[in-house]
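Researcher: Please translate sequence to structure tokens.
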Amino acid sequence: LLQENHYKKLLSWGAEQFLDSQLVIDGPLEFELARNLSLSSSNILLHANDDSYRLELGKLYMNFRLGSYMQTGSFWFNNIELHDINLKMNETPGESEFDMDELQIPPVILNQAAFSNINVSYQELAPGTLHKFKLDELELKELAENQPVSLRAVGIFESKPFELNGTFDSVVQVLKKQEPANLDVSLSSELINFRVQGVIAEPIEGRGLDISVEANSPQIRELIEIVWDEIPVLGNLQTSFRILGDYDAPRLMGIDVHLQKAQEVDLKITGSVKNLAEFEGLNLQFSGESTNPEVLSWLMFDQQDHMQTVQLSGVIIGGIEDLLFHDINA
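Model: Translation complete:
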């Protein structure tokens, strides 16, 4: 069997070859291989050679179900604990824009998890903004045997405190009962408050979604500014909709969006989307008015200083390839 230092060297070699990064493990590295794989370590540093990120990890423990991906198509963690994490990311020159189509997240199942003292920052190229996220505590655990999983998280995002709470059926429960899976998750913060609740009739097959979403952002500008610069003051956003259908072709029904700021902005959107995954089958009715030239310029993607007031209404139908605006009144 290999000695501890040999494992460390092997992992460091893998980080260099596959991640173009330097990996240093100062703490003890412990493996336990049986039906499950257990791994624990501490004082870990992973630093990208191009300085795009630096990850410091104080303590790591995980218990992984061997062969889970071959059996279920998912990486199954019986337990995972991460403590005292500092992740610093830097935007690098020539970095391409984020493309959702290139995002590939492997399916992961967590039976139990505990995270604490996690700090994440992302520095845009100068003179860009420094974005910060802090997770003080996250706990994911079963309330009792054959009971739903409880989720609780507390932290700070963009200098605003948040709290996340919820319950949902565990994967073990779903597999055993072959019954609909329930979920109820809510987030409260100064930036946004939302609640997601509903049921998935056939969670294993991915059929029968019936989930309600409600959200309210007292000042949506602060939320949008995280990813989009130079946003005018837009006011309060309230929205609600239902997600129905299957995993591969969910549809949005009962869409109700209202953006309002005193007498300056009043915009409403209602309707439905037949296939959210393909962004097809839009049927949206919109109406609104604004007396703020900055808001008008932002909504119309063009400078509109000469316009003091505008009233609009119309219908949006189609999809990505054949989007149409009709019945426009202005």
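Researcher: Any highlights?
Model: Confidence is low (pLDDT under 50) at residues 98-103.
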